[in-house]
User: Fold this.
Amino acid sequence: MPTAPAWPAARLHVVTGKGGTGKTTVAAALALAMACDGRRVLLVEVEERQGIAQLFDTPPLPYEERRVAVARGGGEVRALAIDVEAALLEYLEMFYNLKRAARALRKMGAMDFATAIAPGLRDVLLTGKIKEAATRQVKGARAYDAVVVDAPPTGRIARFLSVTEHVSGLAKGGPIKTQSDGVMAVLRSSQTAVHIVTVLEDMPVQETADAIVELRAIGLPIGSIIVNMARQPLLPLGSMTKASRGRVDAGSIAASLTTVGLDGSSLAGPLLLEAAEHAQGWQAQVACRARVDDLDRLTYELPELPGPIDTGSLYELADAFTRAGIR
Amino acid sequence: MTAARAGASPDLDLAGIIADLDTGIIVCCGAGGVGKTTTSAALALAAAEAGRQVVVMTIDPARRLAQSLGLEHLDNTPRDVPAAAAFTASSGGHLQAMMLDMKRTFDEIVEAHSEPARAKQILQNPFYQALSSSFAGTQEYMAMEKLGQLQETGKWDLIVVDTPPSRSALDFLDAPHRMSRFLDGTMIRLLSAPARAGGRAYLKVVGAGLAIFGRIITKILGGQLLKDVSHFVGALDTMFGGFRQRAQATYELLRQPGTAFLVVAVPEPDALREASYFVDRLSNDQMPLAGLILNRVHPSLASKLSAGRAEGAAETLASSKNPDDRLTGALLQVHADRVRTDEHEQKLARRFASAHPDVPVRAIPAAARDVHDLAALRQIAGHLTADPPGRPGTRTRAWRASARPTA
Assistant:
């Protein structure tokens, strides 16, 4: 594992990954790790699924920045679940002083329409809000030391992050173009790092490789690959090949089982089958890790934790990040 | 393992469903990453082996799975799966597969429903281009449209559909409606009124609120977008009825008893919660739910040996000087780990069963390796269509009775 982050200037960390790889958990753990020693971190959710509230075991988050956790050394993680409609109202008020008119329009269902009529307006509002939080100043100092985004999955991440450009293409005039260009400038700068979460399985690794190509093509800075839920070997590494091919002698295993009072003759077979599956899974994981290494990116690895994920597991994963030098 | 694996749920008889000639459409739904595409492909293969004329429509298959099906390109056309012929030859069945190209499908609708000159105008409209390639829901809408097209040809007696990897499984049902409502909506008609009536009708029908709305849109997005939308809707006018009718017809098709919805989930809280929502929604909409496929479970092969007992024995063996004993200790650790996983998964399955006691469930053991070829796909098909665990040869033919929503 590396000992120092390769993105010293980054304070906007966008976390993506294939569905099912645990990107929300990883984003939360990353935020906790970055909040150590008195720092302030904002964890942002964009898909309106309240995953952060569930992880931190808090009531659903409203559209405001709320403290959800205290990190080691007195730092804090605040969380924000961006509500697109509220963000649109805020935007209209900020730039056009149109809040009251916008409220009336909401009643007519015009908001749905507005976000539908301009595919990408939704993403512009989301990325715009993220940029605002990442660059916000309070009394001459940065409001947050870092902003961590639980972003859309790898399949949609490039579109999500470049959608400002789609809109600028669509809305050739109009002030939204200026706004989008500003967002894009921050996203493309060294202030931003896009991290890709994967598990050591074929499809997620393939999607990681694809996402790197796509993100690179649109000039977005890639931070690291975060391998999540890496399983530990339970058999001696020297026995993996033998076990995976079912070449372990059942007779001697049965004999050993009998010495500890177990029914060796009926148990040896099933146990060896379970061991073969474990070993095959391990070998598949080793092969996937080699493919991740070939991507030649800064890589972090988080262990698979037993049982369901709760707030305690987040601290455990945050510790793993801290040990790897993330701060 | 045996019958207790899926709690109190009845068994899902997939072999019966694919053998039933009344089953014309199978739709696999579920959250992203649960193995919908693989399941769809495996079921299609099993059905073809059972003698059916099958086409499977995949949305976004993993590269190797696509290759194993002989799908090298996304070309929107069903093609033979050559490797499957060896398995289907004896039964007279046949398997074809295709990948959905949503933009192409949308373009084809436009071309089929308008004069060439007008079609060209629409296809070149920037608003149409954005809509057809990136509107949230276009993929779902086009999946449904394509399903309708495949069904109309009558070339296949079974269509297996994989659904798009949406945030929520419900999107597959909602998106087409949302889309046709959008295209057919009052709002878009009012906004596009200037293009159709030269502005006078616009003044008449537009209230103050809408005028403000138009101003806001113009202010934020610039006037060009509004003009593009206007022209698009103007050009599309003749197609509107067609759009709505088609979406409605396909939706109705899905409610027919010849359709079987399969919800796919993995034994994880999020995926099962999603599956629960979907099950409720299907029954609300009176859609024929066949059951739940609980994918990638890890049944212990020696479940009588508890995790605690195995760990105790492993500890004793770990300090032995005999290498066989130490290896046996490691095997017992593997077993203990497996039993804990199994217990956790069964607990989740029981929770689902108690909330949905009537929904049939079939649990599919996790494969140690990813699916790269038809042989691996057949193995999954084998699990899907095997006799119910513990009850060999007692298939229920009455799956449809339990699948039918109670009004």
